[in-house]
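for the writeup, i need someone to sanity check this before i put it in the appendix. the sequnce is what the collaborator sent (i think, or maybe the updated version? ugh). structure was predicted straight from it, no edits. if anything looks off just tell me and ill rerun, i have time this weekend
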Amino acid sequence: MNDGSQFIDIILFAMVAVFLGLRLRSVLGRRTGSERPPTDAGIGVPAHSNDTVVDLGQRRRAAIDVPELPPGDTSLNASLSQIALADPSFTPQGFVQGAQMAFEMIVRAFAQGDETTLRPLLSDEVFENFAQAIRARQAAGETCLSELVRIVSAEIAEARMDGRTARVGLRFVSQQLIVVKDAQGEVVEGDPSHPVQLTDLWSFARDTRSPNPNWLLVATRSHDE
């Protein structure tokens, strides 16, 4: 009699477990294998992934207002139209907004000496230049403290299709606090109380036929160069 009661209890527990499982699946849903990986809403980096992806084609962010291109700039508009034909996900406004995120990530990672974050965002040549600067700073015992106060403006300065590769250059005007300290903690460059305004031209490129959505930073130069 006791054994029969235990058997009934087991059946009841099993039924409850099945019921709870069905309820849980109805709330959370089921993976079919076709879902996009979960993303961090801030920067578009796949969660639980070592790959850094900044989608410069479609990502939206209200960091600054992105102006429409001047109607008279027909050559630039024509080049952007060619890029949009090769890559239907591309829009100038979306690109600028995504580029701002890349700018913030790269500036912060360079200051922190974070080569892991930099690697998937930069071309081989640019990465090697950044890595050499980071290692030289580390060898000298120097530390760089950098804070991006704000991006004053970001606008497309040039664009072209190079074969199947899209290339877009952006002019960034930003305010940054940049301080370099030596091994003794003494400031050797910059002023921690006064941000500086910088103007840089960053060029990004992407193979429009590649399934990889990443645009790589392929060149940088300052306004004075």
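Residues 1-35 form one domain. The chain has two domains: 1-35, 74-222.
thx in advance!!
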